[in-house]
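Risk register update: the risk of archive-format incompatibility is retired. Evidence:
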Amino acid sequence: MYQEQIKNELEKKSVIIFEIGLEEFAIELSTIKEIVRSGQIRKLPKSLDFIDGIYNYRGEIIHILNLEKVLNLHENYLYKSKLALSKVKTKRKKKYIIILDIAGVFIGFFADQIVSIAHVNAENIVGLSPIFQTSVGMENIKGIIKFKDRPRILLDLSNLLNEIDYISIKKEEIKMQKKRVD
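Archived output:
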């Protein structure tokens, strides 16, 4: 009985559920470095279109991604109805920055709200069916979590950026570090 309880605990995943616009997503808690209140973001001229700017995180400069653009969320707001778009604009607060460590690179993104932290049994995470439709690229989806109230997409943000994007971000970080030293 005790071994079965340990097995069940090991099969559970801790996830954080957050909101961007009108959508709620989940990511594994183990990928998150920290969640901080939204602070001063500095826009960079000529930066990649999906980067909102840079943020000073404990003395380290990190890039803040626009997850809506990266995941193509802006493409699918209830068929771009005027009512849905107006709700998104009035609701948007960008209250939090979720900071991730992806392959040794700290990257952040805005979340409008942190909904909850949940412990999910592995059997409640299902794969995608071939007819599943979403604007989010399949490479960024780990599965669908079946919650009692409604399902949510479990994101896999390790595939968020390709190698070229990582190189571009690293180059910008090096430039920013040099400017701070000078």
